[in-house]
Specification:
The protein is of the alpha/beta class and 335 residues long. The protein contains twelve helices and twelve strands. It has a twelve-stranded mixed β-sheet with strand order 3-4-2-1-5-12-11-6-7-10-8-9, with helices on both faces.
Length: 335
């Protein structure tokens, strides 16, 4: 059996990403995939020594044949740090390095050297301070790099009675800008991508999607806001006429209850902190962040760089394992 190749970018060098990459190959049999790290081999070797983990690093040129998976061996597609990194201490000089690891993984997926990319966490502030003021996150960077109009950020966990998937209509926006970003055109693009990818990547023939309102009580018939009446409800009605199974707009404070979720395949929240706190409460550390609509598979962890844990060996590897497993499953379904 040919195992899928998952390109794992090691993220912010001062964070836990490098050691998570080392940790997952201590027992590769749980993965059923070939994992290749994308990062600085010296950084990985130094972190391995610091933690006392006997990991063998094998430097491989992108596109060259990868060694068969083996406990304690990690293939690496090398990218060099701008400056040596210290665990827990951000250095904006390495911002370009982090983005270069993403670029290498994207290109590998495009030309078939990797079947999917999985990303360890990066630090947005360090990248902005490092000379990339327009950077807002992995999701938007990947959208632009892949040249697509719309992508959808979705987190998923199976630590509930039924898989819980929460997608976002808007991603990394200040709350003051969310209402103006909820438009008919934007919602239409997001919902179409979400429905199509649930079918293509998750094998759900006719996905049922619950849609949150924007305002408290979904606007209370216009008394608490009119976005539901003027934008969200008409958009959903038009898309239902196209055959999509959409329920809503529903009040977000009652949507996330078993009565609704037991009959849904995904939830579409209007903004980041409307839906993700619920998912992370239910499955933090056992959830994956998924970017839909790229034309390739990309997953990530559900947490940040955890600078305070970097170099201690205490960082939980559960979310990265889930991200790798989800990437493998999505790749298999797409073929």
């Amino acid at each position: 059996m040919t195992l899928p190749v998952l390109a794992l970018t090691t993220g912010e060098p001062a964070g836990v990403g490098p050691e998570l990459a080392l940790a997952v190959v201590r027992d590769w049999r749980q993965l059923a995939a070939t994992v290749v790290a994308v990062g600085d081999p010296d950084l990985l070797a130094e972190r391995s020594r610091l933690l006392g983990w006997p990991i063998e690093l094998e430097i491989v040129s992108p596109g060259a044949e990868l060694p068969p998976p083996s406990d304690g061996r990690l293939p690496v597609w090398p990218v060099s740090l701008a400056r040596p990194s210290t665990p827990g201490r951000l250095d904006p000089a390495n911002a370009g390095y982090v983005l270069e690891t993403l670029d290498l993984a994207i290109e590998a997926c495009r030309r078939g050297a990797a079947d999917a990319m999985v990303t360890a966490p990066l630090h947005k502030g360090a990248i902005i301070e490092g000379g990339y003021p327009g950077f807002t996150g992995h999701t938007e960077y990947l959208r632009d790099a892949c040249g697509v109009e719309e992508v959808v950020m979705m987190l998923a966990t199976e630590r509930t009675s039924r898989p819980l998937r929460v997608a976002l209509a808007t991603t990394h926006l200040p709350l003051s800008r969310v209402a103006e970003a909820i438009t008919d055109a934007g919602l239409t693009r997001v919902i179409r991508v979400l429905a199509a990818e649930l079918t293509r990547r998750f094998g759900i023939a006719s996905p049922r999607i619950l849609v949150c309102g924007l305002n408290p009580h979904a606007g209370e018939d216009g008394h608490l806001g009119r976005e539901e009446i003027e934008v969200i409800a008409p958009t959903l009605a038009r898309l239902r006429d196209e055959g999509l199974d959409l329920v809503g707009p529903l009040p977000a404070d009652t949507l996330f209850t078993p009565r609704h979720l037991d009959h849904a395949d995904a939830v579409l929240a209007m903004y980041h902190d409307q839906g993700l706190p619920v998912l992370k409460y239910a499955g933090f550390g056992q959830a994956a962040n998924i970017t839909l609509g790229l034309g390739m598979v990309r997953t990530s962890v559900d947490h940040g760089t955890a600078l305070d844990l970097a170099g201690t060996g205490l960082a939980e590897v559960g979310s990265l394992r889930v991200a790798l497993q989800v990437a493998r499953q999505m790749t298999a379904r797409a073929h």
